[in-house]
Amino acid sequence: MGKRRGWCIFFFFVIISALTPGATAGLAFNDPKVSIFSSLILNIFLLYVALLLIQDVKKVSVSSVWNNIYVGNICTIVDAVTLHLILAKYFSVLGTTIAFIVAFLYTYAVFMVNVGEYQLIKPLLKRKEKAIKVRPIIFFIFFIPLIWFFFKGAIYVLDFPIFENSSILYLFIILFCFVSFAFFYDFIFLSKSYSEIGFVSKPFLWSSSGAVSLFIGSLLLFSKLNLQLSYYLILSFFIPVTLALSYYLTFAIEYPAILQPKWKVLLPFDLPKVTMAMTLALLAASFYLTAKSYSFTIYKDLPFVIALVFLLPVFVATLLIFTYLEAISFRTKLRYWSYLKLGLSLHLIVSLYVFCVIFNLWAAPTSESKVLIYALLFGLFSFAFYLAFALDLRTILRDQAIVPIFKRLDVLLYLIFFCSIFSLIFFTLFLTYGRATYFGRIEFISYPLILFFIAFFLIAFGAYLSVTHKGFEEILGKNIWSELSYIFAFVVFLVVYMLYSSLSNYLHHYPYHNLVFVGYFAVLLIEILSTMTLTGESRSQKIKKENIIHLLNFHAHNFLRTDYLEQLWEEAIARYVPGDELQRMRFDSQNREFHLESVDEMTQVTVAVAILLALHKMPDMEKVMIKRKSLEEIKSELVRLLGEKILMLPEELRVELDRLYYPILYERTINNLLAQLRTFISLSEQQNIFDRLKRREALFNCFEFEKGEMRTREATRFSRDEFLKLFKLYLEALGDEFPFKRCLLRGLVKEEIRTDTHAPFAASEVFDIISTGIKELNLVMAGGLVKGSSTLLIAEETKAKQKLIQALMKRNLLEGTSIIYATSKRPYRQIQGELLMELESVDNLTMLDLYEPLYEEKGISELIEYEDHMLVPLNKILFQRSLVKVIKSQSRNHPRIVIIDVYDDFARYYQPKETYGLLQNQLEGLKRWNCTTVIVLDPHSHLLKKVGRDEVEKNFENILMLSGGEKETVVHIEKLYQGTPSKRVLHLD
């Protein structure tokens, strides 16, 4: 019931919207023109609101796909005006009923287009928009009287000749029907395809109903009018409506094709361009038939060979220009090329107009030789101008390694455009010959000041272009063809001026001949405007490089090739951005801007650094970037902006900046230590330390000790390994001056490293001592275990043993040391759970679990790998393989502790010699891989009994024996690599 009420309200609103304003106005003024004008205002208002909505969504969704629907709305506004002019002009012929039915059907179609557009736009805006904004509506209200003045005047002014060959109009109708059926079919097909998931289903369904309404109203109008009397008015209706449908249809296919490219098969060519070409061709044919009906016989005396000789070279040259412009515009997306297209199109129209004037003057009572000379001069220099223009663009394409593509359809369309425009101009000259207009009374030739003004601008513009400006013009450059094109353009202007001066007595018959000079001046202004877009007055100068996004957009604005930027963007997001973040970031290729503000800082930094580094690694940077910097300069700027944030980068990006970042990190770390040690070591002693270090290591000459702080000289570069080397040397020299035990100094340094969340190194990397995790034991053992040493821990399977191993792991995991723990005594989950009770994560711990395969009922016979541990059968070959695999997966330079508590169980299943041989081989291999090794054996181990305790102990640098219970644990230090411990026996509570 609710849905039915909604539909009734909806259709009631449409009917009232279409009929009430017109009916009310018509009764009030007793004038059908007022009623029709009210309908026109309603339609223009609906389309005006639609244009405002498109402008809003383009601010959020930057895509060229919205341009199609925007241009379609513009064409619909033109169509609405022509339709209502027809209704007003032929109201008496159509009758009240037909006129209002056609107006209602058209209004319904426009309303449905608005509904469809709104439903497409609403999800993208993600916020409630005001349907009507105050300022635009006030502007529209003040615009209504101007529309009324134009509308009322056009009704009486518009007067077209009778068109006898009205059958050609059926070709327009066929074109209109084809586009309408394609529109309806594709919209219904796409709507049905997305009926289950929504997306464009309802908007396309509403729009297709509007297309049906428009089609019915158009055919009704066509059937009621006299085609001979109203041919050109009907034509002025069908042309914009067909173009509007083609633009809407293009949008309807391109929009879903962004997500699903398969829909592109529904439109394998540029429909608006094809429609416009066919429309121009039919319009040119109509002009020809109209001229023929007025006894057009002048063509019999005209030399068409000369026309062909002129037009063919010009066509080839302009074809090359437009193709080159299309190719380079697609790769760079600069507004400059759009302006050049506009300027070239206007210049070509002016050239064709001048030639048509020369062509028509051939039959006038003038000297044929004079006309022939002007024709040859104008044709020669015009061709030279277009050829130089084309060669200039070809040079730019070759420098940028861009290959233009000549498609057969495009060539055919260019040919149709060229011939149609020439024909329209030529027959327009014939149809307007001898007519007097107010504009035609002004002879620019009689006003030398105006021509001097234009000539002065041409010369000034040539001087302006001869200077290299800051901006993309530096990249594009100016070669010999550029200079020649400016020279030939000026010569063409002089030829036209001489032609107009010598044949001025005959030119007054052509009422719009003075527009040639206006056209040339407009081309000049467009060229100046286009060049200004390349200069340094771009927004890139105003971008403040306050953060990494600003820096990225600064260099993107100064980068010529947007296709390269798009490629780098796709590669960066594919590699570094998770899928759920993709919708929150985008690249605006039109404005060369990366929008990363909505994602987290890590993603921003990673994507920006990846693109910036890739940009500055490109070959031939001078050809694609202005205000360019070397790779080292951009790295320095990245380090300056990011600081510690560099450590957020993935490994492959971070290593690119290591040599710049580590000098900064070294300075900061040393200065932090200097501030804390100032009480114990004087500044003069610190100065002496640096002086000694400079004699020992040349890299210390890159630092200066001033006013109690260390300063790094500019251009200092060194790697992570060199950073660790310099830090170790400083700590070694510092230890000689430290007045207390070195273990206190090591504790201070470890705490500094631990509290620095961005420190890219562990304490174990700068000390040759690894903490046991027990303070009392560290004091006795001069700080702990020597890095790279092997330790034998003899202990029974008690809680005290597990407590000691757990303390060793916890302390070193906190410091960032990697630990490999192989055990057959306890399950992996239990060990992991105990560690996570005191640690946030155990990412640096790798477990080789031999417990589960040994004691679980379901045994295994091969290695089973998980993300954080590995199940290993009690097989010496598989165990050896698993250990080698884990160690080789890590960097040799990264500190590692390997704890192995499996040999007691191996000795139960293998011969003692085999187990002992495995032990020796592993100790030797672990030492080569710079591992600190702890081997755990039970004092009653079968291995110690059979092989001999002394034989086993001689393979180790450190030997610890654990005894006692959990309440009182005794550690016997039988052997210590550093020398003699301060105590041989240590009691732990």
What's the main sheet like? 10 strands, mixed
**How many distinct beta strands?**
16
The end-to-end span amounts to: 81 Å
Structural class: alpha/beta
Protein architecture, described:
The structure is a single chain. With 989 residues, this protein is an alpha/beta fold. Among the domains are: 301-537, no CATH class; 539-649, no CATH class; 665-749, no CATH class; 773-988, Rossmann fold (3-Layer(aba) Sandwich). Helices cover 64% and strands 7% of the residues. A ten-stranded mixed beta sheet has the order 10-11-9-8-12-13-7-14-15-16, with helices on both faces. A two-stranded antiparallel sheet has the order 1-2. It is elongated.
Please describe the topology of this protein:
Layout lengths: L1 H28 L2 H29 L4 H25 L1 H4 L1 H30 L8 H24 L11 H25 L7 H24 L6 H27 L13 H23 L10 H29 L2 H27 L6 H32 L8 H24 L16 H18 L6 H5 L3 H23 L1 H4 L7 H18 L15 H10 L4 H15 L9 E3 L4 E3 L5 H15 L15 H12 L8 H27 L5 H14 L6 E4 L2 E4 L7 H18 L4 H14 L7 H4 L2 E2 L4 H6 L4 E2 L3 E5 L4 H16 L3 E6 L4 H9 L8 E5 L1 H5 L8 E2 L3 E3 L4 H13 L7 E6 L1 H7 L2 H17 L2 E7 L4 H6 L1 H5 L4 E7 L4 E7 L9 E4 L1
Helix pairs in contact: 1-2, 1-5, 2-3, 2-5, 2-6, 3-5, 3-6, 3-9, 5-8, 7-8, 7-9, 8-9, 9-10, 10-14, 11-12, 11-13, 12-13, 12-14, 12-19, 13-17, 15-17, 15-19, 20-22, 21-22, 22-23, 23-24, 25-26, 34-35
Q: In short, what is this structure?
A:
The chain is built from 37 helices and 16 strands.
How would you describe this structure in keywords?
alpha/beta; disordered N terminus; elongated; two-stranded antiparallel sheet; 10-stranded mixed sheet; 989 residues
